Amino acid sequence: MKEKQILGIILAVVLVFFAGVMTKNKHENVTYKVGDVISIGKINYKVNNFEIRNSNDMTGRNDLIVSIDVTSMSEESEKASFEDSFVLQIGEKTFEADSTRSGNANAGSNPFRYNQLNPDQTLQGFVVFNISKDQAESKKFDLLIKEGSFSSEEATVKLN
């Protein structure tokens, strides 16, 4: 009897997990541009600006950084939680945000790392990525915004 209960619980957990993974992404085949407001989960995101520049915050490095100005807004009636879920895509290559440089760009803290927004609250900050000079010459920069680690909902913002 206990074995059936345990098996039932395991089966329920697996089904819930796969239901979340198999959910169709409503942003699939839609590409947004800088300035568009994108609703992902309980948070609205807006990419305000994007720039490529020399990295002058760490000595001894000759790479470049991509700095992306993002605003997150909650229009919920209760607090909404979110996590750092930005991925830069240059052609077929993907880049994770540099947490140290993102923190430096935001006066010492990363506002998009595991944060909460209260109703009608807005949060603005910078997400920073390291890239090489060769990668900076690409004509295809996209930002993938994901709802979170365990969600399939994501949107693509064409940066250039």
Automatic annotation (TrEMBL):
Keywords, in A-Z order: Signal
Organism: Carnobacterium maltaromaticum LMA28
InterPro entries tied to this protein: DUF4352, Immunoprotect_excell_Ig-like
Domain DUF4352: 32-151
Keyword Signal assigned: yes
Highest rank taxon of the organism: Bacteria
Protein name, UniProt field: DUF4352 domain-containing protein
